[in-house]
Amino acid sequence: MADGVAGVLFVLGALFSLVAAIGLLRFPDVLTRMHSAAKPQVLGLILITVGVGLRLRDPSVVALLGLVVLFQLVTAPVASHMIGRAAVRGGRVRTDLLEVDELSERQDDVEEPRGAP
């Protein structure tokens, strides 16, 4: 039974990763691509690691997979935030696609040095 559930989780995780890859190619701007790279990709990774844990059923492997998921959950939002911040600062955001732009008024007043962040 656990092997069947693991197989279903593998397929679902692979589909979420495929959706993330298609989103990276098809979405028009940095912010929507960033969303596609972070959300479904992390969910796909979680589903695949849970499937591996169910398939192997070894406590040390499950602990290691738990660390992989934990680090991915910690680093993916930070990386997405930094990419979005760099895109806004670099003027790479298409403001015509935004419904709400809370940073435009603040960005005009801030004078930041260019170069390394």
Number of helices: 4
The total tally of domains equals 1
| Beta content | under 5%
Number of strands: 0
Shape field: elongated
Distance between the termini: 51 Å
CATH architecture: Orthogonal Bundle
Biggest sheet details:
none
Organism: Nocardioides aquaticus
Keywords: Membrane, Transmembrane, Transmembrane helix
Transmembrane segments: 6-25, 37-56, 62-84
Family: Belongs to the CPA3 antiporters (TC 2.A.63) subunit G family.
Question: Which terms would index this structure?
Answer:
117 residues; mainly alpha; Helix Hairpins; 4 helices; 0% strand
Brief synopsis:
It contains four helices and no strands.
Draw up the topology in text.
Layout: H1 2-26, H2 30-56, H3 59-89, H4 104-109
Helix pairs in contact: 1-2, 2-3
Descriptive report:
InterPro entries: PhaG_MnhG_YufB. Keywords: Membrane, Transmembrane, Transmembrane helix. This is Na(+)/H(+) antiporter subunit G. The structure is a single chain. The relative contact order is 0.13. This protein has a single domain (2-109), classed as Helix Hairpins, CATH 1.10.287. The chain is elongated, with a radius of gyration of 19 Å. The longest helix has 31 residues, at 59-89. Helix 1 runs antiparallel to helix 2. The chain has helices at residues 2-26, 30-56, 59-89, 104-109. It has four helices and no strands. By secondary structure, the protein is an all-alpha fold.
